[in-house]
Amino acid sequence: MVFPTLSFLVFYLVTWPISWALVWLRQHTLHKLAIILASYVFYSSWSTKLAAVLLASVLFNWAAGRLIYAWRGRGAAKAAVVVAVMVNLGVLGFFKYFNFFVGGLNELLTTLGADREIRHLEIILPLGISFFTFQGISYVVDLYRGDLDRSRPLVDVMMFISFFPHLVAGPIVRASKFLPQLETPPDPRRVFVGLGVLLIAWGVFKKAVVANWLAVELVDKMFIAPSAFGGADLLVGIYGYAVQIYCDFSAYSDIAIGVAALLGYRFQRNFDQPYRASSLRDFWRRWHISLSTWLRDYLYRPLGGNRHGRVRTYLNLALTMLLGGLWHGASVKFIVWGALHGGGLAIERWLAETFRPKQRPLGAIARVLAIVAVFHFVCFCWIFFRAKDMEQAGEVIWGLLDWSQPSQLVTPFLMVLLAIGAMMHFTPPSLLVGLDRLYHRLPTWGVGILAAAALLAIELLGGDGSAPFIYFQF
Amino acid sequence: MASPSQRPGTEDLEKDMLPSHAVTVVAIAAIVVSALLVFNSKGLVEWTRQPQPGPVIAALEAPAVVWHGWMIRLGPAVLFENARRQVQKALSN
Lengths: 474, 93
Prior knowledge:
The structure holds two protein chains of two kinds. By secondary structure, chain A is an all-alpha fold. Chain A contains 19 helices and no strands. By secondary structure, chain B is mostly helical.
């Protein structure tokens, strides 16, 4: 069940009135239970068996949370939180990385002349495991640190981890931000309907029209056989992927935030014009904000952050991003992608500390140059992220040097799509506020007609079918 | 007063936006669903014919086909389908 499909619409049209009816009947616990049930129905549409992994993760983190809270202030609490984090990471590691490490170990054994191989296991990766594992860790760590004032009942922990809008592809919601929202029922008089409807329509357009067409007409064609194309096509293909992945992933986040908003719940912003970043540090404050802040608070800072001298800071940055890359998937290409970002962040910090210790703001021209440079570095890293493997990434990079072939892929339609994607990326938040004001000036039936017209227009403009979101694989 | 990390939600997206009553969603959803049913009735039929439909969805197939037939006779489904074909053709070329 994917967001912009009829199946999801039907599912939501059943879930939404039941959820609000239970609020109206002052049945707060039943309201949460109904949303939990809906979330497991949503998840079971992919696999009923793997929903058991999700349930086990919830039960484990809830039980660990109770122990951590009961032992607060004692050494046992620290031991409990360490065990809880290790178990969470162990489960994630088993499902996601077991065969990857077995493959690497077998290669090593072969190199050492051993004639035995460790068997691979047939493991099916539970959808969204990277996301719900990080949320489970957020719960136990927030409790240990005191960011959450007390352990929460099972129903709250279950809703926090399993809530269907963020369940399979984020945003990664923080326990300390979301659980307080479950203390009282959502107020039906204070629902951000304008925001929700706008974000859903905005997201569906970005995904169904811009991202899908860019994937079909440009990026997928280019990455199937990069050696068939010259430098111009490869360069446009990489720019195309930069726009596609932004439109695809930010669309999922927009729809998730919108769907949750209409149910009366709030998530944090996940994207903030990332390609406007004038430094890599700035980029990671704007791209997949819920992951980058999670990595900062639950990995970089516990590693020591910037508290143990310059060299240790650079190492911590590099290690955090390396593991961030590995979080995306068990593959060398993701490790390289993370290492490039980590290395880039460390070098950028070293350059700033060495040559610009006063951190004066950049002048206009320098700022534009910095934005262009950061954008191209990010695009270079996307090659590894998108390529099938390292060999294909190498093919793309070498191909960029060959400008002898005429372009086969660049069409006016693609240029228009890239321009629309870029425009949507650079849309200032004030436009959304302006549209919200318009929403409040129009009669409700007028908003309904506009929303219907927008969805029908998207249906006309979108390609056939609905391609899965890129971040579903993580 | 709650510390920033304990404040419910983040509120940065809602900044300067105005809340409404949840009931307004009902009217908006009713219009959107009606428009989809009238103009995109073909999509409804295709949805009921998905691989491995559950019993509820399978039971909806026959009424969906009848509904789509009406929408073809009355015109909106034909109008929408023609528009879709023209747009897709223009975009594919």
